[in-house]
Amino acid sequence: MSLNRALLAATLALSLAACSQQNAAAPDASTPDLSSSGNYLVGFKESPLNAQGLDTQALEAQAVLQAQAVTAAGGTLKQQWADISAAAVQLSPSALAALKANPNVEYVELEAVHHALGGPSGSLTREGGSPALSSQALKAQAIFNPSGEYTWGDNALGVPQLLAEGKTGVGVAVCIGDTGIDANHPEFARKLKGYKNFVTTDVNREDPYKLNDVDGHGTHVAGTVFAQLGGGAAAKQPGMDAGGVIGVATGVNLYMARVLGDSGSGSSSGIINGVNWCAARLTSQGQGGTESKVVISLSLGGGRASQTEQRAYTAAHNKGVLIIAATGNDGAAVSYPAAYTNVVGIGATDANNAKASFSNFGTQVDLVGPGVSVLSSVPLGKGTAASVTALSRNFTEVTSADLSGKGTVTGTVVVAGGTNNEFCGTTANSAAINGKIALIKRGTCTFEEKTANAVRNGAIGVLIYNNAAGAPGIGLTNAYTTPVVGITQVDGEALLAAITPTTAPTATLSVTGADYAYFDGTSMATPHVSAAAAVVWAAKPTLTNTGLLNLLTSTATDLGTAGKDNNFGHGLVNPLKAISVQ
Predict the structure, then answer these.
(1) Which of 58, 123, 234, 453 could be cross-linked to 428 through a Cys-Cys bond (beta carbons 3.0 to 4.6 Å apart)?
(2) Pair 102, 18: CB distance under 8 Å
(3) Is it the case that residue 36 has pLDDT exceeding 50?
(4) What is the mean pLDDT of residues 126-138?
(5) CA 69 to CA 235: how far, in whole Å?
(6) How many of the other CB atoms lie within 10 Å of CB of 120?
(7) Residues 44, 84 contacting (CB under 8 angstroms)
(8) Taking each helix axis from N to C terminus, what angle separates 307-318 and 268-279, rounded to the nearest 10 degrees?
(9) Of 83, 154, 178, 491, which is the active-site residue?
């Protein structure tokens, strides 16, 4: 049968089915009311001819008929992807039932929402009692440490040697799907190759050189990939090199698809559109793209499994791109899209090559990358830098809470009180801290509870000292105008020892804006691996996307149980070893 005759037959069947839906019966009791939102994805049955590749005219005709089926069922078509026979639709309960009854519809599913999978160090740990993330913070005795502009993550992947050898990813594109980018940040040197916004619910987010990355996540991810040598911005974190930081792949062509909105979340539709746009950067797709190789980097996840998303990722993979995604931060099963076939799932490690406590696990973990206390760019002025001066010295390891107020306060340091000085209990009171800086020990209640108690009792500043090595990352639920910082157990206990019934130390506590921030998450691991993949692909240009993945997994540094395991996958990506393979 010719393609035209086959399409005609399919057209007739779909048209008859669409017409029959106008008189479709009401749903019976077994039809679930999936959601009150009414946002669904519908997948039509794919003909074997789709796999052979329908021409543009045939695809357009098929799409028209599928749109008619949605309308005939009483639904509203929002978005259509002709190449995968799927669409995003708005459906009432009756329209949902009618569309499900169409014999040419393979499935109808709720549209998923995905989220950024990283944030300021400490934001993934909001419980005050667990030292898990704090114990993974960067420490002097770590296997990998920062040096100059190179972050510990750079050093873990051998970036100094790669850069010395001119291995920077020239000739390969990295297209990031995220919350946007502050393209004005000096680390990007105004070299962003392309940008497009796919979040229709946010307004005035079309220009990468104007406000678009409200969340800040995308700018951080982009810095890990692309931060330029010597591109340091003005407001740095304490101890940073004057040149700022340097990305893993400074020579790639960088693109940003804004698929997550101001809140850090985005719909399946927007993400699929962003992935398709990234794939269209390929010259081979005939859509004006100029790239021969594209790595798509997705530091996002969550939601549920989606047949539409799987179709979309498979279609993009078949076009030749390599898709890399974060596995998630729940310490549970791998999230989507990382769990899909044809998507590379990335877990997170710390500076001691240990699995990050939050990193998800499962058979879909393919590789791991640096994901704890990762220093990178954020929108100018939107980060926070903290410092504490007390006991006649500057404390060397200080962190600001993710939702701390900014400002500088000087005052007397007093013990907050409560069992073990943890200041727990929603009714905890202490008149002594009014107008003072409250010193509180990390312990059994949340950071939020401690902070709320201190602020409610009139504290002008909050110092939370750790119960393990390093300064604690502090995640809060609410934003405060009061500065809230974390200090080490050693410094906290030194302050505690200096407080007597008749004397108390004075401290100056400061939280200021910064152009850089430390983030935790598999979101941070993902751009490390994406950039490393681009560097290797540039050095091995004859590889296909599948061949590249096979090389990356076979040369990874094995961690944990020998061989591939559920925590580390094949291990820490090792671009130097991958490039050296003949």
Answers:
(1) 453
(2) yes
(3) no
(4) 41
(5) 56
(6) 26
(7) no
(8) 10
(9) 178
Question: Within its chain, how far is the Cα of 533 from the centroid?
Answer: 18
CB 39 within 8 A of CB 110: yes
Instruction: Let me know: does 129 contact 279? Beta carbons within 8 Å.
Output: no
Distance between CA atoms of 438 and 83, rounded to whole angstroms?
60
Q: Cα-Cα-Cα-Cα dihedral of 225, 229, 235, 236, to 10°?
A: 80
217 is known as an active-site residue: yes
User: Is the pLDDT confidence value at 432 over 50?
Assistant: yes
Which residue has better confidence, 29 or 16? Answer: 16
H helix count then E strand count, the chain: 15, 25
Spatial distance between the Cα atoms of 144 and 465, rounded to a whole number of angstroms: 25
User: How many other CB atoms are there within 10 angstroms of residue 277's CB atom?
Assistant: 20
Catalytic member of 114, 217, 220, 570:
217
Q: What type of residue is 351?
A: A
Annotated catalytic residue within 2, 30, 36, 392: 392
What sign does the CA torsion over 198, 109, 84, 174 have? positive
68-85: b or e for each residue (b if 16 or more CB lie within 10 Å)? bbbbbbbbebbbbbbbbb
539-571, pLDDT tens digit by residue?
Answer: 999 999 999 999 999 999 999 999 999 999 999
| pLDDT value at 204 more than 90 | yes
How is residue 135 written in tokens?
């114990």
What pLDDT shows up at residue 50? 59
* Chain center to CA of 213: 13
pTM: 0.90
Whether 178 is a known active-site residue: answer yes
pLDDT the model gives residue 16: 38
- 377 belongs to the catalytic site: no
Residue in 567, 573, 556 with CA at minimum distance from that of residue 362: 567
How far apart (Å, rounded) are the C-alpha atoms in residues 301 and 428? 38
